[in-house]
C-alpha cells in the first residue's frame, strides 16, 4: 500500500534530515515510528502526506507516486489524513462542526452519525456542543483526531497523538484507535517518543535515530533482538555487560567483540552464589525495580517485595548479544 524507497531529505545539503529511508506498509497495518526528538519522525510523516518535496528517492501510495506542493494546488494526499502536533481547530464553531468540517452535507443524518461515531472513539461525545477554545490541550488533540477519523481515510497519519493526554486517557485512546483501525481496515502510521504508546498497539515499529532507520520489526522482535543499545534504550530498563563482566559475575564467556544486553526480568534471586549489594529499590506498581552492584557493575532486577538482606545472589536466565 505504502512504499518508501531510498528517501533522502534536507533543508541544507550539509544538514540531512532523512537518510536512505526504505520501508513498506501493507494495507490495514498499524505502524509506529519511535525515536527521540529530532530523529526525523515528523518530517517523514509530512513527506508521506505530500506536504514537503522529496529531495531524492520516492514515495508510492497504492502504486502511485506521492508528489509534494510543487505539483498540487492543495498539498496533502486526498486519501490520507494527517493530524499534526498543531491541531488547527476552528475556535468559533463547535466541536461537532469541527469534526464535520470535511464531510459532505448531502446526507445530514449520515453526517451527524459519522461525527458521533468519531467522537465516541476519542471519548468526547459529551463535548460536541462545546467550543474548542474552552477545552484543554488534550481535549483539543482528541478533537483533531476525531476530525481525521470522520473522513474514513485509507491512511491515517498521527504525529505524537498522545502527547497532551493524562495517563488514564492515553491507554483508553490507544486502545480505541487500535480497535477502530482494525474494525475499519484503515492503515495507521504514527510517531511517538514513548514506547508505552506503541509496544502493545503496533504490527510493526520503526526505530529512528538521526534521520535513519535503526531497526524495523515487530514489537516482540525489537525487544527480544535489538540490533544495538540505542534500540533497547527506547524500550525500557536494561543493562549492558562487557565480556569480562559477564565472566566475572556469572561465569559466562562471550566473544570479545560483543556485549550482553540483559533485561531486569531475566535476573532472579537464588539461594546461593555471587553476592550483589543492594543499592536502592523503586516501586513499579506490580513489583519493585531493584538496583544492585558487584565489582562496580550495576544490575537491575524485578522483585515482588524489597529484599530483607543488604545482599542477594542472582541467577541470569537469559541474555542477548549486541
Automatic annotation (TrEMBL):
InterPro entries: AAA+_ATPase, ABC_SmlMolc_Importer, ABC_transporter-like_ATP-bd, ABC_transporter-like_CS, P-loop_NTPase. It comes from the Bacteria. SUPFAM superfamilies: P-loop containing nucleoside triphosphate hydrolases. Residues 2-235 form the ABC transporter domain. GO terms for molecular function: ATP binding; ATP hydrolysis activity. Pfam families: ABC_tran. Transmembrane segments: none annotated. Keywords: ATP-binding, Nucleotide-binding, Transport. This is ABC transporter ATP-binding protein. It comes from Moheibacter lacus. The lineage of its organism: Bacteria, Pseudomonadati, Bacteroidota, Flavobacteriia, Flavobacteriales.
Amino acid at each position: 500500500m505504502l512504499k518508501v524507497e531510498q528517501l533522502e531529505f534536507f533543508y541544507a545539503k550539509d544538514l540531512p534530515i532523512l537518510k536512505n529511508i526504505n520501508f513498506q506498509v501493507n494495507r490495514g497495518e498499524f505502524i509506529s515510528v519511535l525515536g527521540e526528538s529530532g530523529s526525523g519522525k515528523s518530517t517523514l510523516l509530512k513527506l508521506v502526506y505530500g506536504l514537503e518535496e522529496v529531495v531524492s528517492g520516492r514515495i508510492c501510495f497504492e502504486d502511485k507516486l506521492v508528489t509534494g506542493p510543487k505539483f498540487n494546488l492543495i498539498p496533502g494526499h486526498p486519501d490520507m489524513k494527517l493530524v499534526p502536533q498543531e491541531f488547527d481547530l476552528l475556535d468559533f464553531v463547535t466541536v461537532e462542526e469541527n469534526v464535520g468540517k470535511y464531510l459532505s452535507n448531502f446526507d445530514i443524518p449520515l453526517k451527524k452519525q459519522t461525527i458521533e461515531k468519531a467522537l465516541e472513539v476519542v471519548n468526547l461525545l459529551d463535548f460536541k456542543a462545546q467550543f474548542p477554545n474552552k477545552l484543554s490541550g488534550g481535549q483539543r488533540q482528541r478533537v483533531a483526531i476525531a476530525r481525521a477519523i470522520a473522513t474514513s481515510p485509507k491512511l491515517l497519519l498521527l504525529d505524537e497523538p498522545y502527547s497532551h493526554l493524562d495517563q488514564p486517557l492515553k491507554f483508553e485512546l490507544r486502545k480505541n484507535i487500535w480497535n477502530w483501525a482494525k474494525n475499519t481496515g484503515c492503515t495507521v502510521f504514527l510517531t511517538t517518543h514513548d514506547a508505552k504508546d506503541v509496544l502493545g498497539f503496533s504490527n510493526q515499529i520503526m526505530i529512528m535515530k538521526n534521520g535513519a532507520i535503526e531497526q524495523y520489526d515487530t514489537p516482540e522482535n525489537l525487544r527480544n533482538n535489538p540490533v544495538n543499545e540505542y534500540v533497547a534504550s527506547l524500550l525500557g530498563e536494561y543493562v549492558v555487560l562487557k565480556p569480562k563482566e559477564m565472566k566475572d559475575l556469572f561465569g559466562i564467556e562471550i566473544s570479545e567483540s560483543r556485549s550482553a544486553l540483559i533485561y531486569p526480568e531475566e535476573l532472579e534471586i537464588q539461594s546461593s552464589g555471587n553476592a550483589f549489594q543492594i543499592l536502592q529499590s523503586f516501586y513499579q506498581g506490580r513489583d519493585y525495580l531493584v538496583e544492585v552492584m558487584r565489582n562496580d557493575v550495576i544490575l537491575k532486577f524485578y522483585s515482588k517485595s524489597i529484599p530483607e538482606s543488604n545482599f542477594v545472589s542472582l541467577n541470569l536466565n537469559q541474555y542477548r548479544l549486541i
